[in-house]
Design brief:
The protein is mainly alpha-helical. Helix 4 packs parallel to helix 8 and helix 9 crosses helix 11.
Length: 245
């Protein structure tokens, strides 16, 4: 069978971008603070990722003093972040089930009808595209981690499969993909921060991917790899701070 993502590696600049992203994330995993103390740095990365992801969707990303979070998007994003470790085996085996669970966590404070939680929008197109995405996650492609994570992220943003919280879900799914493919097995990188800081470019690149045009898809993959590099720099800062404590 033909690998559906193989053509992406032939697009100009993609192979180099993938290599740079991998090297940056690999370097973070070799940081002295992450050899034994990685659970602490990974936890900090997870919180920063959740805050940035909520900020992208218009929420105030600051956690109030005392830790009581009332903002519904931020609260959902933090719940999602806490779930990723336990949810990883489900993502690798049954990604559509994992997406449903992510929606339950992300949108619990956003919907008025509890029956909407965990249920994709009706329609053959939504179901078919989710099924294809699930096949990619479970082995229908041998594309490198940065490419698969970019496609998962972009497709979920474009599809808006759920009635709410699709952005938080898409970014969490991309994070799960980075972990499951071995690109970032400890979850140290924080590409969400790069997306938040470059919000206009992030949105523009996502629209390009959604268009299905070759140039748009290429720009999205390149942006995603760049965000992974920036996320690795953020992770290096977290590790440096841990060493200094």
């Amino acid at each position: 069978m033909t690998d559906p993502l193989a053509p992406l590696l032939d697009l100009p600049g993609v192979t180099d971008a993938v290599r740079s992203a991998r090297e940056a994330v690999d370097a973070v995993h070799r940081h002295p603070a992450n050899r034994t103390g990685w659970p602490a740095t990974a936890a900090e990365a997870s919180v920063r990722a959740a805050r940035a992801s909520a900020g992208i969707d218009g929420a105030d990303p600051e956690i109030p003093e005392g830790g009581e979070v009332d903002e519904p998007v931020l609260a959902g994003s933090l719940r999602v972040a806490e779930s990723l470790g336990p949810l990883l085996p489900t993502w690798e085996r049954a990604p559509l089930q994992a997406l449903a669970r992510l929606h339950v966590l992300a949108a619990a404070d956003l919907v008025t009808d509890p029956d909407e939680l965990g249920r994709p929008r009706p329609g053959d197109d939504v179901a078919q595209r989710l099924e294809l995405l699930g096949q990619l996650v479970t082995g229908a492609t041998s594309a490198p981690g940065p490419v698969l994570a970019a496609v998962v992220h972009g497709e979920l943003l474009a599809l808006t499969a759920f009635p709410s919280a699709d952005g938080v879900i898409a970014r969490a799914a991309a994070r799960l993909t980075m972990i499951s493919t071995g690109l970032d097995p400890k979850g140290l990188s924080v590409p969400e921060v790069a997306c938040y800081r470059k919000l206009n470019r992030y949105r523009s690149a996502a629209e390009g991917f959604a268009s299905g045009e070759t140039d748009g898809v290429r720009e999205w993959v390149l942006f995603s790899c760049e965000a992974m590099e920036v996320g690795a720099k953020e992770a290096a800062g977290i590790a440096d701070a841990a060493v200094g404590e």
